[in-house]
Each structure stands twice: as structure tokens, then as C-alpha cells.
Design goal:
8 strands; 8-stranded mixed sheet; alpha/beta
Length: 279
């Protein structure tokens, strides 16, 4: 189970960031199509927002879009390298503030100041203790009607299949994985985290999980290893009983976007990477 220190070491020192995070949008063609076709439709109800908090922005793949939907944007990452990259990339945006944290706390964010908290394709790698710590913080940082949207791991719901795939001989394990019977953690998801545990953590910290979309991730994979959870304080006007859907066809959105990208955008993804690297 990776610790916060492991995460800091990896993202600050080991990962090369040559694609500036754009590489993780390759299934969609580029991050712009992923934003408009997958991310924005899920959060548009709560945008624009006065103050947005983005957790784990990396090199600013989503910061680039969030900054245009708020009066103030606060970005927080445990990797100093990422925060410096964002600071340089968005130097002309005076309404963004930047903070390096310890991977769990948000003491630099004033209480009851956040209208919308966001994290996508980042906190899937952190374990249940980190998600719990952030929800504990967000329960104080959100405004009374503030809303949060977090993309997190659900691979913990496959612990039996993961454990069995590691114990079996490699040839047998690969045979069963290729047939979808067992699973391997191809995308480095947090194995202690599930959709159910997120519900429990929200309730424990005085938050209401309004909705959960349990999704597949990765080309050719149908296992529901991820979850998109929307939450708000229990007394919020947005507070409703949890609605949940299982979306085994989530990656079809990526497939459609990729076809459009190949048809209309051509080298746009590569150009975006080069623009970030040249800052």
C-alpha cells in the first residue's frame, strides 16, 4: 500500500512529466475533448463557482479549464514540482493561488470558503486513509452549500480477485485475467478504496454523498475500478439521498472522443504537450 511519502517521491522526483499529464488523456485524443465530453457534463450544474479548490492538479491539465469558471481558484498538490509547473503555466492568471501540502491536510484553505472542490484522475492513487483525511478537511472548508466532486478508486471491491491473481502461477493468472475472471491493478489504483467506503467516510464527516457513478477505466477493460462521487454538507440545499449508477460503458465516451480527435484535431494533443513544455 503506497504511503503519502511514496506518492511525494514518485510525483516529485521519479515521474518524468514529459507529457505534462496530457498522456493520460490519450484515450480521448486530448484533454480538451476529455474535458468537454466527459468531465464538464458531470460538473456543469455547479459552474461557474465563486471559489474552486482543485486537489492534486499535477501540471494543470484541468486547471487550464477550471480557471475560467471561477473568481478564485486554489490549487493544492503534495508535489512541489507540480505546483511550480502550474505557477509558471498560469502566471498570467492573477486569481489562482498555489500551495504545497502534506498530502492530507488543507490548513492553508480558510474554513467555509469553498464553493466547489474538484479532483479528477489524481486521487485514484491514494488509499482510504488519505480520502478520509481530505473529506474531514473538506467538511470544514466547503461553504454551507458547497459541493465536491472526487474521482477515486473502487478497485478495493475486487480484493479477492486481485489477491488470487497474485497467488496463482503466472500463466494461469494471465489466462484468467485475459478472460475477465481475475483482475490485475494495471492503473495503480488504491486497493483499500471503494465506492462503499467513500459513502461511509462522507457520513462520518458530516457530508452527504449525493451521487456515485461507478465506472470502468482503461481501453479494453470492463472492471469497475473507479468511482466519481459528488458530495455536499448534510445540511446543504443540495443534500439528497445518494443516487448511484453503474456505468460499464464509460470508456465508450473516450472512444467517441478519440474518433472525433482523429478526424478533426489531428496533432492537437501533441501541440498541447509542446506548449506546456515550452513555458
Amino acid at each position: 500500500m503506497p504511503t503519502v511519502d511514496n506518492q511525494i517521491g514518485f510525483w516529485d522526483k521519479k515521474y518524468d512529466w514529459l507529457g505534462a499529464g496530457e498522456e493520460w488523456s490519450s484515450s480521448w485524443g486530448n484533454s480538451e475533448l476529455q474535458w468537454h465530453m466527459t468531465v464538464l457534463p458531470r460538473i456543469a450544474r455547479f459552474l461557474p463557482a465563486g471559489t474552486i479548490l482543485e486537489l492534486a492538479p499535477g501540471f494543470g491539465r484541468w486547471t487550464h479549464y477550471l480557471k475560467d469558471h471561477c473568481r478564485e481558484l486554489i490549487v493544492v498538490d503534495l508535489a512541489a514540482r507540480c505546483i511550480e509547473a502550474c505557477r509558471q503555466r498560469f502566471a498570467s492568471a492573477s486569481h489562482i493561488t498555489y500551495h504545497v501540502n502534506d498530502g492530507k491536510s488543507l490548513e492553508m484553505v480558510p474554513d467555509h470558503s469553498i464553493d466547489f472542490a474538484f479532483s479528477f484522475d489524481s486521487l485514484v492513487h491514494v488509499e482510504v486513509d488519505v480520502i478520509g483525511a481530505y473529506l474531514n478537511e473538506l467538511a470544514r472548508k466547503l461553504k454551507p452549500n458547497g459541493v465536491g466532486f472526487i474521482h477515486h478508486s473502487n478497485i478495493g471491491s475486487y480484493r479477492r480477485e486481485l489477491d488470487l491473481s497474485r497467488r496463482l502461477p503466472t500463466q494461469m493468472s494471465n489466462f484468467l485475467i485475459n478472460r475477465g475472471i481475475l483482475i490485475r491493478n494495471f492503473h495503480s489504483r488504491a486497493e483499500t478504496m471503494t465506492a462503499e467506503s467513500f459513502l461511509g467516510l462522507c457520513d462520518h464527516h458530516g457530508l452527504r454523498c449525493m451521487s456515485q457513478e461507478i465506472i470502468s477505466w482503461g481501453e479494453g477493460h470492463t472492471h469497475l475500478i473507479d468511482c466519481l462521487s459528488m458530495f455536499t454538507p448534510k445540511a446543504s440545499t443540495y443534500s439528497t439521498p445518494t443516487r448511484r449508477i453503474v456505468n460499464k460503458k464509460f470508456m465508450q465516451e473516450a472512444s467517441r472522443a478519440k474518433k472525433l480527435c482523429d478526424l478533426y484535431w489531428q496533432s492537437a494533443g501533441r501541440e498541447q504537450q509542446n506548449n506546456v513544455r515550452n513555458l
